[in-house]
Structures are given as C-alpha cells and as structure tokens.
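Intended use. Records like the one below are meant for learning the mapping from a protein sequence to its folded structure. Do not use them to infer anything beyond what is encoded.
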Amino acid sequence: MQMALQLAQRGLGDVWPNPAVGCVLVNSANHIVGRGWTQSGGRPHAETEALQRAGSAARGATAYVTLEPCAHQGVTGPCAVALHQAGVARVVSAMEDPDRRVSGQGHAMLRAAGVDVVTSMLADKARVINVGFLNRVSRGRPSVTLKLATTLDGKIALRNGASQWITNEASRRAAHLLRSRHDAVMAGIGTVLADDPELTCRLAGIKRSRFVRVVADAEARLPPRSKLATSAKDVAVWLLCAGDADSARQAALVKQGVRILHVPRSDGGVDLAKAFATLGGEGLTRVLVEGGATLAAGLLKDGLVDQLVQFRAPSVIGGDGLAAIGALDVTSLKRMPRFRPIDTLRLGEDVLETYEPAP
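Structure written out for the chain above:
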C-alpha cells in the first residue's frame, strides 16, 4: 500500500476532477505483477493501468488500491468490474470513496462477486494525498494552499516593490514543485499588475498538461499584453471577475484565450467563497494561492485556507517593507487565525514550514 500511495502522488496536479489513485497488483508468491496510477485528465484509472501491465498474471492476485474502486459507468466501465473480470482474488483499499456514485458500492460489488475485500489500510495517508478531491466532494470547493515567501519579519518586498530574490534558489525550486502538485495556481490582480508573472511550473522533467492559472480580478484589469494573457492559449488562464466588469476589457481577454468566470463582488473584489465554489464546480481540486497580501488576507478572513506554506529567508526588511498579509481587522487575540505546524524542512539557509488550521 505504501508503494500504491507513492504512485498515486504522480497524478497530483494532472488528474482533476478525478482523484489521484495508485494501484499495485501482487501475486500469491508476493511478487509485484502490475502497477498503475491515474493518468493525465483522470483516464485511464489506476486499476486499469495496473491490470493492463499485469495481463494474465492478475488472476489470483491481490490489488492494493489507494481509493475504493469505482462502481459507476463513465468513459470506461467500473474498475470494480474490471478487477473481478481479471480474476483478482483480493482487493485491499485504503479508504472508501465519498463520491455518491461510489460510496461503498465498489466494495459491495466486489464482495458480491466473491472477491475478498479489506478496507481502511493507511487511510490517513490516503486522505492527505486526496484532500483536494475529498474537499470538493464534501464542501463543494477545492482545497486551498496559501504560499508565502517572506523574510523573518514577514515581508515579501522592499517599500519600492523589489522582491527578487528574498528566498534562495532551493526555495524557488521547491515552490515550483509545489505548483506541479496543484491543479491551479492563483494570484490577485495587484500582484499580477506589479510583477507580470508567468505562474507556470518550470522544473525540468515535470509537465502538467492541464495546469490552470487563475487571477482574482473583479474589474477585468488583466492587461491583454501581459505574460499571462499572451500565453493563455498555451497554458490555461481563468479570470474571476464581476459580471458587470468592463465588457470591452473582457472581450479583449477572451480574444487572447483567457476564460472568464463571473462571480459576485464583495469588499471591493470578488466574493472569495463564491469564487472557490465556482472553481470547484469546474472540477478543480487543489489550488495554490501565491499572492498578494490582499488576497491572502481575504482568504484568512473567510476561513478558506486549508494549508499554509511559508518559505522563510534569514533576513529582515523592517517596518517599511511590504507585508505578506494585508489587514485582517483583528480586534481580539482570541479572533486571530491560528495554525499548527505539521512539517519543517531546511532548504539551505531558508526554512520551509507547513501549517494547517488549528482545531
């Protein structure tokens, strides 16, 4: 199952709206005869890939799968049926699929066919890998990772906006790896106007064909000649803007290949809760938010941050620098957003810290 979980992670950022699943087939002599993971776009499923590699050796084998095999007819037939028809004798799954089209039916289908089924093996680890998929199914929105790259005193740039580079090269590589494990990377229009970023994953050997770049831009101010707009036909760009934003600006961006998603306004920008519900409705499961301070503050105010990742450099800018997070209007210490640390990693002189909301 550990191997299946590692295989599942290969699909992160490239299989939405499907979950990232891994499957390992082991014969009676405890030899691995097939392995697979969900492919780009969510098809083929991990079980199909493993069965294809195993061929006739799948008969009598045990399948270790990180999520309950599907029980519904989609583009392909149910994986539960495929496993039974291939002669698999035993299925060990990490967890039940909460999707109402499956939700225990895959396990039931296998048991009815005489296949031995064991469940809940390394379920906690499986949930971590597919937290985005689980979040979209249960809460209607993708999981949100807020990424910060700061000095020791929480600054992201000098007063004049200069920020390249606060963190070191190892941190920047790790940040690109983080992008590759998300379906989309998101920034606010203020950051886009200031930095003209590409927001792509530029690590050698990693290609995500379904990567999406999202901009929160209530007034559709994204410049048609920006790096994002001019590359929208090559790497998807979705603009979250108000329906009454300037129609000419919207039309110019659509002509460039930018996809417009209309969401209600709120507090001078877009309604973030509605925005992420919209992204969930489009199938996204994992969104990495990279800036800026206003967007970060809005997410924290609305309780939309599921994970906070901070790259921290051993330097100080001071009170005249630009803060990573805008005003939160906290009037009581009891109302501060609180997080608990779950991981720490040294990256040369920098430190990468990962947090989750405190219960």
